[in-house]
Amino acid sequence: MLQLDTQFPRIPGDVACPATYCGDVEIIQIPRATVDKIVSARPDIIDIKPFEQAVQCATGDVIVTSCGFLSYWQNHLAALTEKPFISSALIAFDGLRQAYAAADVITLTFDKASLTKQHFGPNADYDIGTVGLPRDMHLRRVISENLPELDVGLVANELTNFISAIKRQHHKHLVLECTNLPPYKSQLHRATGLGITDILSCIEDIQPGSIQPQFLI
Q1: What is the CA angle 187-189-191, rounded to 5?
Q2: Mean pLDDT in each 10-residue stretch from start to end of the chain (217 residues)?
Q3: Does 70 share its domain with 115?
Q4: 127 and 65 housed in the same domain
Q5: Are residue 141 and residue 105 in the same domain, yes or no?
Q6: pLDDT number for residue 66
Q7: Half-sphere exposure of 123 toward its Cβ, with a 13 Å CA cutoff?
Q8: Which residues fall within 8 angstroms of residue 107, CB to CB, at 6 or more apart?
Q9: Residue 217, domain member (yes or no)
Q10: Backbone phi, then psi, for 73, in 5-degree steps?
Q11: pLDDT at residue 94 in the model
Q12: Same-domain pairing of 158 and 133
């Protein structure tokens, strides 16, 4: 797990929480890789060198990142290791596009303004379904301000109300780009009836038995 330089709570279901996994997880925190530096509409100017070094030092069977905004660097970082590498749930669109048209999918991200076609790579047409967390939402404040406390119940209520209001009849699937959203996946599924893809399902597809069953739907 290549984790950004953050201290906000990582609760079970979060990709950077050890309790999310069935086995051991090695967490490599990348110094100075703060949210404001990685969540960027210009992913090409991110300082990728620390991530390159971490990929080459990682000892796990699968290497993942704690921020989907690194998806722009998927191929570059994957080429540095023989192990499976997952930068973001956005890589799942390679398969999802076989089942869903761009208009069928909602992609929930931390910041819509910063998630560009560059992050979607060859699946840039799916950016039309991108929705960002409102700036006054509790989870967004916790992440952006690196706050030490998280009200899980408040986050679950805000997220389900938000996505339920956005969902339309033509929507068939929900992609959680933000890796801090999977803890609320079951509530989102119950509220919307949508199938959900996130970074945890991407990990489980590559390495079955990695994720605790309660975090898979």
Answers
A1: 70
A2: 97 98 97 96 97 96 97 98 98 97 98 97 97 97 97 98 97 98 97 97 98 95
A3: no
A4: no
A5: yes
A6: 97
A7: 25
A8: 90, 115, 126, 127, 129, 130, 131, 174, 175, 177
A9: no
A10: -100, 10
A11: 96
A12: yes
Query: Within this chain, do residues 96 and 194 fall inside the same structural domain, yes or no?
Result: yes
User: pTM to 2 decimals?
Assistant: 0.96
Range of the domain at 153: 90-200
Q: Which two tokens stand for residue 188?
A: 């989102």
Q: How far is CA 150 from CA 16, 124, 136, in A?
A: 15, 33, 14
Place of tokens 């929705």: 131
Element (H, E) at 176: strand 173-176
Q: 71 with 113, same domain? A: no
Q: In 3-state terms, the chain is what percent helix, strand and coil (to 5)?
A: 45, 15, 40
The pLDDT value given to residue 217: 83
Residue 153 phi, psi (nearest 5): -65, -40
The Cα 160–Cα 178 span in angstroms is 15
